[in-house]
Amino acid sequence: MDFPVLKYVDILIGLALVMVLLSTVVLAMTQTLLAWAFARSRHLRRGLEGLINQLEPETLRPHSPYLSRLLLRHPLIGQWTMFSYLRDVRERWKLKRLHTAFADHSDEKATPTRAAADDRKAPTTAGRDQEATVVAEAQPRVPPADIKILPALSAGSVLQREELAYLLIELAAGEGPLMDPMATGVTPVSVAAARHALAGALKRSGIEDPAATLRAVRAKVVENERAQPDLPASRWRSNAIADCAPCDFVAKLHASFDNTMARVTDAFSGESRLWVVAASLLVAVGLQFDTFALVQRLSVNDSDRAAFVATALDFQRQSPDAPNADALQREAGESIASLGQSSLDLLPVIVTPRPGDSLGPFGPYLPDWKSVPGVLFSWVLLSLGAPFWFDALKNLLKLRSVLAKQDEKDRETRQAPGSSEPKATLTAGPPAPDPGEAGDLNATGVVG
Predict the structure, then answer these.
(1) How is 354-416 classified by DSSP, letter by letter?
(2) How far apart are CA 448 and CA 429, in angstroms?
(3) pLDDT per residue as tens digits for the range 344-377
(4) Separation CA 395–CA 372 (nearest Å)
(5) Cα of 175 vs its chain's centroid, Å
(6) Which stretches within 63-174 are classed as H helix?
(7) What is the DSSP letter of 154?
(8) How far is 165 from 250, CA to CA, in rounded Å?
(9) Model-wide pTM > 0.90
(10) Least reliable range by pLDDT among 27-31, 91-95, 168-172, 227-231
């Protein structure tokens, strides 16, 4: 039996092509949702918070959430986005609220109540207690240290090990832009409290004078750059910190950083897969994409199947060799545009109008519920991701190339002269020579 292997490979190529095109849409949606949710920065902040806790748990645990958010908004780490202006307005409102609380507190202390003045004239125990009560009531409702002032920048999503060590030493030394996040000339109470706790932790970990250590690191970075200009800047800073601050603080940071970042990467990948599954469900249900209907159509329609293969070959020539998320995201719009401009109907009908109005005025435009199994199966296939379908399409095209060459070779062999199979004969002895496609011109048809 002649099994049509090439036909079924072409069907798989057509399915993989549609999956690649739809997966680029899923990938673009996923990247957009992750960016709007600040997923990278959020996971990095949680990992950084745990890393700071490991340096000095007793001292830094109350300040680690604020320190992690503050460090990721350093001008060297953070980034300006469309939300930076709104964040700047919010932080300045918080700063104004803080100044108002201090002003109210100062006015309350400058103008004591009548009862407090009378008690000062007669310093008794009851008068001192009443004065303490008046001062306590004059305190602002929100403690100044609870107002966490942050720079207007959005949190960064990339932080190197030597950058983290340098920024921690810089903050402990009381230098750098983080000491004045809003550029008002005044260090907020929250920053001062975090800086004091960090300086104490570094002192107990081997860095007695953070300011002197910071100056030594800067000088060593310049020396390393002059001595080894071919090395990257990260190596200059890393070597400088290791040479100028060989203490328990640097040892803890180097021992925990890589493992912490690996877990951060795993957590971000897990959230990304959840977003991919959600976006795949939205695309599959929104388009009513039925995989079973597509396979059935390709199995019975030779012209569509050949057109799918031709489109897949063109797509392969225009695509990069390796699946890259950023490249696929940039090409998502172009792929869908070319899909819409193509004369092929690569996708099944999204919504098929049905006759009758038994389901109301919107009945003819509702999807056919018979396609639910195919839509759910499409959701599962799209959840595999764009890189998977990119590799699958590339491998199927390679397999088809080998099968097509073998099929062409077999066809040429069958059509060549003298290629007919020898037939059985009743005469003894060696078989007669093959006369070829022209036949035996001397044969008369007489037996005997």
Answers:
(1) -S--TT-TTGGGSPPGGGHHHHHHHHHHHTT-HHHHHHHHHHHHHHHHHHHHHHHHHHHHHHS
(2) 17
(3) 444 443 344 444 444 445 454 455 677 788 889 9
(4) 30
(5) 33
(6) 64-71, 84-110, 114-121, 125-137, 161-172
(7) B
(8) 7
(9) no
(10) 91-95
